């Protein structure tokens, strides 16, 4: 699976389950695994984490 943001490879464990959060090693974004439809393939959705203060 590739990161929607930077297109880097995102490692998804073979036994990953829906709702699991994975991080992109390229840009550091976190994604939640979602299944769009029953029996369908897992896809990435930006994880709804609490907004972090990046100090800007
Ligand atoms: Zn990325």
Helix content: under 10%
State which percent range the strand residues make up: 25-35%
The CATH topology comes to Rubrerythrin, domain 2
Write down the oligomeric state: single chain
Query: Over the alpha carbons, how many angstroms does the gyration radius reach?
Result: 12 Å
Low-confidence stretches: none
What sequence of helices (H) and strands (E) makes up the elements? Answer: EEE
Number of strands: 3
The residue-averaged pLDDT reads: 88
CATH class placement:
Mainly Beta
Provide a count of the helices: 0
Bound molecules: zinc ion
General shape: globular
How would you describe the overall organization of this protein?
- The chain is mainly beta and 56 residues long.
- The protein has one domain (1-48): Rubrerythrin, domain 2, CATH 2.20.28.
- It is built from no helices and 3 strands.
- The protein has strands at 21-23, 30-35, 42-46.
- β1 (21-23) and β2 form a beta hairpin.
- It is globular, with a radius of gyration of 12 Å.
- The mean pLDDT is 88.
- The site of zinc ion (ZN) has 8 residues, from loops.
Provide a brief overview of the structure:
With 56 residues, the protein is mainly β. Helices cover 0% and strands 25% of the residues.
């Amino acid at each position: 699976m590739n990161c929607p943001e930077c297109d880097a490879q995102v490692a998804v464990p073979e036994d990953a389950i829906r709702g699991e959060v994975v991080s992109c090693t390229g840009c550091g974004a976190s994604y939640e695994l979602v299944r769009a439809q029953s029996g369908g393939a897992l896809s990435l959705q930006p994880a709804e984490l609490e907004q972090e203060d990046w100090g800007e």
